[in-house]
User: What shape does this take?
Amino acid sequence: MIRSKIAGMGFYVPANVVSNDELSKRVNTTDEWIKERTGISERRFFVPEEDTNFGMGVKAATIALDKAGLTPQDIDLIVYATLSPDYYFPGSGVLLQRAMPFRNIAAIDLRAQCSGFIYGLSVADQFIRSGMYKNILLVGAEIHSTGLDFSDAGRHVAVIFGDGAGAAVLSAIDTDAEKPEGILSTHLHSNGEFAEQLAIIYPASAKLDKFDSKNMEAGGGYFPVMNGSFVFKHAVTYMPEVVMEALNANGYTPADIDCLVPHQANARITAVVREKMGIAEEKVISNIHKYGNTTAASIPIAMCEALEQGKIKKGDLVCLTSFGSGFTWASALIRWV
Ligand code: UT7
Assistant: This one.
């Protein structure tokens, strides 16, 4: 039976560390407020001369390929998840394709915000299961710092986001149908009813003033807006639900999970999800204190650190889950090989 495994992972975060105290020089906030409400101590903001969105993707992808023992020539498809692409179009996937010695393979840009990595994992997994491709590069990368509203109106959003990139190489494996290994299943959902509860509206193709510089200067529509408590409540409902969906689909219970890697949105969200599911704290990955919320990059960055720390090992049952703008939410269950 053909399944896919994660053959290698890598991440890159800019060297520029922005502490809560440093941020509070630009934003009307405090270290105490940010830590209490989110668990975040610091995040990375990119340095314009040094990084771009796809450039960070290249750095993460280079490590992932190396860990997988593959070269760009071995890759059959690029899946690139981001909500902060380098250009309005074309997508960042082709910029990554240009920057490394890939063949003229397809590059799919995927827009599922905080669920981008798991959505991308699912897309890549289906291509491998079907037999169409053998090795796929999946990247999640974001630059938030150039598009945040540092005024009082946006401070609840400005303090949570950070920049960074993560990448995974998925490879085909032949696995026992009775005891499958690798990616067991993925579960994707969306509900567009609440699209504007967490969104950046401009540049909007149906608005005549979509590139109006006055509108841009005023910030209207170009900054992320979020109904924080509304998003929070949905996150702590749907993340446990979609984890249960993955467990039920494979005949497991929460007690079987060796490592849960939730999207790093807020340490309080992670704590509620963990408590609702009755999973021990040491089995749940949380690194939001160091990087803030890096949307599509948050899960691969957290997985890389979990691997480095030996919290994900061969044979482990690993569960990923996300919730974010869209709303989109998702899970993936992996028997690690
Ligand atoms: O990754 C995608 C999904 N995103 C999420 O899952 C995020 C979900 N939401 C959250 O994590 C939380 O809603 C936030 C961390 C964003 C905000 O926390 P909150 O507890 O919901 O705060 P709030 O926005 O309701 O604001 C509470 C108070 C307000 O003051 P009053 O009206 O009570 O006097 C705000 O003005 O805190 C004030 N406030 C701040 N104070 C200092 C809001 N932001 C800040 C700030 N610093 N940065």
